[in-house]
């Protein structure tokens, strides 16, 4: 029986994770592949220049996750075309690696995904005022890329943790305490109620398996799904001041659940990866 048949037909602990993965339709396979490269190939973002991996064990893993081979190959080709991955050939074997820009992007995101405990909430807000900026479109894009959100054509804010203001010509800067209307604006801009619901759903879906005894096949499926679902939530969390958060903030509980699931799946998933020489870049004999 193949790995994928064992995971899907026999059920076991992989089944609820597969159900959670495919709850969102359609599944964004390209995003799932990025999760695999960032978490597994880059070793949670710590391996900043990972080598190429052979496509065969990657397709096996994607099949175990319920992704048909043809769709997986199409998604890999699209990631190459968009500059996320690079494809290499060695004889009849195909290898993929992250481009340097993609690896850098995941490395920057890794602290927000894996850091435990999460950094303390911000204690203030930074405002950017663009009234005197000539090329507002360009400056707006630069500010949004570093975490600012706009609530008018020329006003943006971001949580402040003492970082220095970017050197952007024409932009005026101001700092505000986390209170009153500023908190209300932040809650609306970052859709805190939606984020709270996403954290709560994560807890409901994965808390029952936080201390489960996974087989290697189950562990690799559970790990990828947990990271994939968590990454999509954690990267939306800006770490707003406590006053902007609901009284019973589900984010803290969800992060604890994620950490325990990662611990429970660590040994089994690494055993599965080692048995397939997943990271070595060499085909198995």
Shape: globular
CATH homology-level superfamily of the largest domain:
Winged helix-like DNA-binding domain superfamily/Winged helix DNA-binding domain
| N-to-C order of helices and strands | HHHEHHEEHEHEEEHHHH
State the name of the first-level CATH class of the largest domain. Mainly Alpha
Can you give the helix content as a percent range?
Answer: 40-55%
CATH topology of the largest domain: Arc Repressor Mutant, subunit A
Profile the largest sheet.
4 strands, antiparallel
Tell me what the structure shows.
The strands form 2 sheets. Strands 5-6-4-7 form a 4-stranded antiparallel β-sheet, sandwiched between helices. By secondary structure, it is of the alpha+beta class. The chain has helices at 3-9, 14-21, 29-41, 55-64, 69-81, 100-114, 136-145, 180-189, 192-206, 216-234, 250-275, and strands spanning 53-54, 85-90, 93-98, 124-129, 149-152, 155-160, 172-176. Mean pLDDT is 90; it is low at 1-10. It has 2 domains: 1-118 and 190-285, Winged helix-like DNA-binding domain superfamily/Winged helix DNA-binding domain (Arc Repressor Mutant, subunit A), CATH 1.10.10.10; 124-177. The protein is built from 11 helices and 7 strands.
